[in-house]
Write a structure and sequence with these properties.
By secondary structure, this protein is of the alpha+beta class. Helix content is 28%, strand content 27%. Strands 2-1-4-5-6-7-8-9 form an eight-stranded antiparallel beta sheet. Strands 10-15-16-3-17-18 form a six-stranded mixed beta sheet, with helices on both faces. A two-stranded antiparallel ribbon has the order 11-13. Helix 8 runs parallel beside helix 9. The longest helix is centred in the first third of the chain and has 16 residues. InterPro entries: ATPase_AAA_core, P-loop_NTPase, RecF-like. This is AAA family ATPase. Pfam families: AAA_21 (PF13304). It comes from Phyllobacterium phragmitis.
Length: 365
């Protein structure tokens, strides 16, 4: 399923945002404009599928921190509202997923700062009349099974649970399961740790790894899979050489662990291990693993991928994003106009300008 639009309201600086998404969605703006809130709001949709929505909000400081704090319309409930629309590329059917989270009532079984799911819906539009696949109001959930029958799910929901995660795992509701699989497959890369103990600097367990974990901990295995399972590192070698002054990856056949190193033109007989590489070098290699892996997720989201990179690396990064966009949707938020222009030149994607006015994030397409 391909994401075609996304809206968010009531979340941090996002009073009300609606975005149409393409193969590459590119957002550029200054620090503090709210770019990361766009990224984070989309990530919460994945969290709804994974069953971690409440935990993610709590980790941000709870609902009091996550809610829009500007002026609200009188009489309207205080809620975070997220909505995503998808198109099945094989059937052209469209799915809409909607979730609303609000504060717990004064007397409730929930904790003070966690979100309570007030409403949750999933609908399907095949070109006739939209069909409601799931409808949740409070703890009660109705959904259509594989035969199209509308049933009340027998398990009563906890206020902080998402119906999408609970019903997808039951095996009774195939369309809900399909959407959940798509969302769980999304990858969000919010930078990579580059300290000495960073996961990207460590050897990986020698297991075939078709795509990069969100923390980059299987980077060495991703490179080994490209080199020794797929047998094709042409794109990877080209991008590494372009970004790192003619350097070349050294990827030995794995034994119990997978490893990699870097050979630079100045020292052709010496392999530099990940622990010896600069922050910019190791971060670029992690981005290469995310964007050029054997298999790509349905959607890759990058939050300020230019961090710690030398400006000379940005054209190669833009080329990797363009290559990834041939196989996956890519969502990029950046404050670098240089990177945004390079991505536009490589993909044709027009940068959307993210601004903040009076505490509210706006997006100018």
């Amino acid at each position: 399923m391909r994401l075609i639009s996304f809206s968010a309201s009531g979340y941090r600086s996002l009073r009300s945002i609606y975005l149409e998404t393409g193969q590459v969605s590119l957002f550029v703006g200054e620090n503090g404009a709210g770019k990361s809130n766009l990224y984070r709001a989309l990530q919460l949709v994945k969290a709804a599928a994974e069953g971690t929505f409440a935990r993610e909000i709590a980790a941000e400081g709870g609902m009091q921190s996550a809610l829009w704090t500007g002026v609200r319309k009188a009489g309207k409930p205080v809620r975070i509202i997220l909505e995503t629309h998808f198109e099945d590329e094989e059937t052209a059917a469209r799915f809409s997923y909607h979730i609303e989270a609000g504060l717990p009532p004064p007397v409730s079984a929930g904790f003070k700062f966690e979100p309570h799911i007030k409403e949750e819906q999933l609908s399907l539009d095949t070109g006739r009349r939209p069909v409601e696949l799931m409808d949740r109001r409070g703890p009660a959930v109705f959904a259509r099974d594989g035969d199209g029958k509308r049933l009340q799910h027998p398990v009563r929901m906890l206020e902080s649970e998402t119906a999408l995660s609970l019903l997808a795992g039951s095996g009774r509701y195939p369309e809900i399961g399909d959407l959940s699989v798509t969302l769980k497959g999304w990858r969000f890369y919010h930078g990579f740790r580059t300290d000495r103990d960073s996961p990207v600097r460590q050897p990986s367990t020698a297991v075939t790894s078709p795509l990069l974990d969100e923390d980059g901990s299987n980077l060495a295995a991703v490179f080994a899979t490209l080199a020794h399972i797929r047998g094709d590192t042409v794109d990877l070698d080209r991008c590494v050489a372009d970004a790192l002054g003619g350097a070349k990856l050294d990827i030995p056949p794995p034994d119990r662990t997978a490893r990699f190193g870097l050979v630079v033109p100045e020292f052709p007989e010496r392999v530099f291990g990940p622990e010896e590489l600069s922050d910019g070098q190791i971060r670029f290699l992690a981005l290469a693993g995310a964007l050029l892996s054997y298999r790509l997720p349905p959607l890759i989201a990058l939050n300020e991928p230019e961090a710690s990179l030398h400006p000379s690396m940005l054209p190669a990064l833009a080329r990797m994003i363009a290559r990834a966009a041939e196989r996956a949707q890519v969502w990029v938020v950046t404050h670098s106009t240089v990177l945004a222009d390079a991505i536009r030149d490589q993909t044709g994607a027009r940068p959307a300008i993210v601004e903040r006015q009076g505490g509210e994030t706006t997006v100018r397409m």
